[in-house]
Description:
The chain is of the alpha+beta class and 83 residues long.
Amino acid sequence: MKLKLTPTQNLCVGYLESGFELIQLGEQFYFVKGRRRQKVLPKTLDALIDRGALCTEQGNYKLTQEFVAHRKKLREGVKPVHH
């Protein structure tokens, strides 16, 4: 899976990976964790769904298993360089 994400899309994935919940209030979507809330555009969510990174399950948005496996594989492939 080759998945190119924009910086904004990567930020959204980071929110989901770090435990933020995605909620909808009226027409607007937000990432929420505790008292913190970050607005996200519906077109960004649509782009993540189109790329296979995000899905809706019982009305909730979540990262797809395929995308999570892809991210894990990418992280394992990056080895720190020691000087």
